[in-house]
Amino acid sequence: MFGYLIDMDGVIYRGQELIPGADRFIRELCEHKVPFLFLTNNSQRTRRDVATRLERLGISVEEEHIFTCAMATARFLARQKPNGTAFVIGEGGLLTALHTNGYSIVDKDPDYVVVGEGRTLNFEMVETAVGMILAGAKLVATNMDPNCPTQSGTRPGCGAIVAMLEAATGVKAFSVGKPSPVMLRAALNDLNLVADETIMIGDTMETDILGGVQLGLRTILVLSGGTHREDLPRYTYCPDIVVASINDLNHFQLVREFAESSTDPFSNRIGGSTTDSRVGFVSA
Ligand SMILES: [Mg+2]
After folding, report:
1. Cβ burial 30-61 (10 Å sphere, 16+ → b, else e)
2. Which end of the chain is more exposed for a tag (fewer CB within 10 A), N or C?
3. pLDDT band at residue 263, thresholds of 50, 70 and 90?
4. How far apart are CA 59 and CA 82, in angstroms?
5. Is 264 one of the annotated active-site residues of the chain?
6. Is residue 1, in this structure, part of any structural domain at all?
7. What is the Å distance from ligand 1's center to 84 Cα?
8. Residue 211 lies in a domain
9. Are 3 and 201 spatial neighbours (Cβ–Cβ below 8 Å)?
10. Which pLDDT score, from 0 to 100, does residue 149 have?
């Protein structure tokens, strides 16, 4: 049984616009009961918010199909230190996930300073966080994405906020979101799939594809987001398949292609060319 981890921004939608074919592909997965999770490094929204946003774009899925880096971070912390405390730089998705996993939000002496995406940041919060980290609180990032594409251009991402705290304290953050195996392993567990049967679809080499390659997943890069075909030669790792967009993908065709190459999934990845995709499929 094959299943999917699917990035959203740049794969399913761009800004407020659905990428053509995304609704058809997801509908096929639902109809054939193929396991899948949407995996996002955006910690702002709760999984219900994300499901509603998808619904409005014409993709109808259950909340259980959404897995955010905020959820991954909260679950990770709950295992590391059950019922701990956190000072949070972030928004509703992160606060809700921490509460759901038994965490209290405090503004004094926290176990962790947890940083996610958001527009609520001000210098006072940064100063407070720096003091806490220097006093021994551990620095945790939901992800290290340096920026996020928006309707109007680019805004600083979680990684940019974390960089400021790291520079000020000399402490390196621990990041949970993609490409961290912490988030990807948690997603595989949720789906009850093994790496060799899991297909990661994403538009970003540094997060989606790197995370997938590190765990030994099957990887598909779509060029409908931030990555161009000309960018690929500079990476030491390459996706199994490169397509223009999700519109070029068909579940049963993918299963056939991947089932044939299942004997040694790593054989063409180590030291392989970074320019051609291993499986021909649809060229972008
Ligand atoms: Mg993306």
Report:
1. eeeebbbbbbbbbbbbbbebbbeebeebebeb
2. N
3. low
4. 36
5. no
6. no
7. 31
8. yes
9. no
10. 74
Are residues 109 and 200 both part of a single domain?
no
Choice among 7, 145, 203, 248 that is catalytic = 7
C-alpha–C-alpha distance, residues 86 and 183, integer Å: 19
CA of 9 to the centre of ligand 1 (A): 4
Catalytic: 7?
A: yes
3-state secondary structure of 117: coil
CA of 115 to the centre of ligand 1 (A): 20
Q: Are residues 184 and 55 in the same domain?
A: yes
Q: Crossing angle, helix 158-169 and helix 123-134, to 10 degrees?
A: 50
94 and 161 share one domain:
yes
Residues 6+ apart with CB under 8 A from 136: none
93: containing domain: 70-175
Quote the ligand 1 centre to 271 CA distance (angstroms): 26
* Within a domain: 269: no
Statement to judge: residues 184 and 170 lie in one domain: no
Give the distance (Å) from ligand 1 centre to CA of residue 96.
23
Length of the chain: 284
Cβ neighbors of 233 (< 8 A, separation 6 or more) are 274, 275
By three-state DSSP, how is residue 246 classified? helix
Residues 170 and 102 placed together within one structural domain of the fold: yes
Is the pLDDT score of 271 beyond 80?
no
Position 278 pLDDT exceeds 60: no
Pairing label, strands 174-175, 241-243: unpaired
Among residues 9, 111, 203, 240, which one is catalytic?
9
- pLDDT for res 151: 73
Q: What's the CA gap between 106 and 111, in Å, rounded?
A: 9
For residue 42, report the distance from its CA to the centre of ligand 1, in Å: 10
Q: How many domains does the chain have?
A: 2
For residues 143-151, average pLDDT = 87
